[in-house]
User: Fold this.
Amino acid sequence: MRTFELSPRLRSVADMVPKGAKLADIGTDHAYLPTWLILHGVIDRAIAADLREGPLERARLTAEKYGLGDYMSFRLCDGLSGVGEEEADVISIAGMGGETIAEILAAAPWTKSGEKLLLLQPMSAQPELRSWLQSHGYVICREVLSKEGDTLYVTFQVTVGQMAPLSAGELWAGRQQQSDNAPLRAEYLDRLMTQSSRALEGLRRSARAAEDGRLAEMERLYQDLLHLKEEWATWQQ
Ligand SMILES: C[S@@+](CC[C@H](N)C(=O)[O-])C[C@H]1O[C@@H](n2cnc3c(N)ncnc32)[C@H](O)[C@@H]1O
Assistant:
């Protein structure tokens, strides 16, 4: 069988797709994810959707190259607007900003109905997406980290439900549990701490930041992240 390797970033999404899922891959571009999943027998067919014709054409070419043209349905649409509720039970949205992902979900409230599984890999605005999800009736059941080159990526496994409120640190770093098998977690927390400590330095030089509360807020966030890092280190002993 002709096949190919997925990048570690996309592989981390692929590993969360249940066997036999009805997958819709939103913002599919080359359609590597659905193509790989069909080639490896994880799913039988998929919807590959993209906002733009160029990426969707690339998706068609990939499917043709691997002889899967008949197993994929191509949709030129914004987010989930071209996908019917009954057509997908697993929705992957990878390689977009967190705000765009939230907009796509907000425009498709049916993602909260029934047994939908959402696999979301935001490239930016992760805290904003976590916050949006918790205030709109979604639960982040699990977060998985992957690394490509020097970059860390996070994928959220999300369903409908009520999530216990996330602390400021958890909005940045995600919720952690002692049972998590997450070899990249310590590095992720270190990077977030470096980011927040740089932000703190900047805010300490600004009189306005002290007055309007941004300095105190960043100090709380830093302490919260420090607590998560120490807790994680203790669990690893
Ligand atoms: C960086 S690519 C990611 C491709 C692939 N999902 C991955 O993770 O490697 C982002 C893709 O999302 C598409 N896109 C951006 N906004 C979108 C939207 N609102 N609805 C559907 N597709 C969108 C872009 O056209 C582009 O092809």
User: Anything to note?
Assistant: Residues 10, 26-29, 49-52, 55, 78-79, 94-96, 100, 104 surround S-adenosylmethionine (CB under 6 Å). The first strand starts at residue 23 and ends at 26. Residues 132 and 226 are 24 Å apart (CA to CA). The chain has two domains: 8-165, 185-236.
